[in-house]
Design goal:
The protein has about 260 residues and is mainly α. It is built from 13 helices and 2 strands; from the N terminus they run αααααααααααββαα.
């Protein structure tokens, strides 16, 4: 793929002429950065069209950035030339990186611009994929399976993801019963095939202290979001109860082990 990009100049959408980066003295420069310039053009097209409504094109673009890195990592003359061209492109753009910066970070910044937060997020995502030896074709599926780029960023930063918070909160809330709610109108909103499953009830609080149920949803996203919010508001007590459950479980296992030996 990149051989084709390297051997053909990138055309601008405005005048259909070759892209030349700060140097009109040498025709070869119109070819030198074609692989990175093409990614930049595709990123701009993504932002101007479906960026606000779909992640599909973003994942494809990130996959191509990842594929570019894999091509650069090979031990051949073409890969060496791509590495040299990327560095020249970085110099011309005036981008500054620490010596420890990963090449994936450099590629992402060249493609997506100088937005530090976005560069960091996308770089974390691709480096997480690299750590698991993913292929270019597996990138989209990898991101989707982890809940999206933000979930991967949070997980990589040792922060709990929304799903992880929800799971911790779920184990706590099932142990407590605040009130029993029933009614004919409410029953019509319930799915009898989902007995035992958690639901989210949207309610309005009245001055009398009563809660009026307005809507019911079984949406996993809504449930996880609600439980995650509950976790954030009750983090200390939830962690304490989780530790108590762990200790109780360990004590039970120890007691059973003693009985087994006896």
């Amino acid at each position: 793929m990149f051989e084709k990009l390297l051997n053909n100049p990138v055309k601008t959408t405005a005048d259909n002429t070759s892209v030349v980066l700060n140097d009109t003295s040498s025709k070869s420069n119109s070819y030198k950065f074609s692989f990175i310039e093409q990614l930049v053009l595709d990123r701009e097209a993504w932002e101007n069209t479906v960026a606000r409504t779909s992640n599909e094109q973003l994942y494809k673009l990130l996959a191509r950035c990842y594929g570019t890195y894999l091509s650069m990592s090979e031990d051949n003359e073409k890969a060496k030339q791509m590495r040299d061209d990327l560095q020249t492109y970085i110099n011309l753009k005036g981008y500054v990186f620490a010596k420890s910066s990963h090449t994936l970070t450099k590629i992402v910044k060249c493609v997506f611009g100088a937005d530090r937060r976005r560069t960091s997020t996308y770089s974390i995502v691709l480096r997480a994929a690299l750590a698991e030896n993913k292929t270019e074709a597996q990138i989209a599926g990898f991101i989707e399976s982890r809940g999206g780029v933000q979930e991967i960023r949070l997980a990589k930063g040792n922060a709990l993801s929304t799903k992880a918070k929800a799971e911790l909160a779920k184990n706590t809330v099932v142990e407590q019963s605040l009130a029993k709610v029933s009614g004919e109108a409410l029953a019509k909103q319930l799915d009898s095939a989902k007995v035992g499953q958690q639901v989210v009830i949207v309610a309005t609080q009245r001055a009398s202290g009563e809660l009026v149920a307005n809507a019911v949803t079984y949406s996993e996203t809504a449930i996880n979001t609600a439980l995650s919010a509950y976790y954030s508001a009750n983090k200390d007590s939830i962690k304490s109860k989780a530790e108590e459950r762990t200790k109780a479980s360990n004590d039970a296992q120890l007691t059973q082990s003693i009985k087994d030996v006896a």
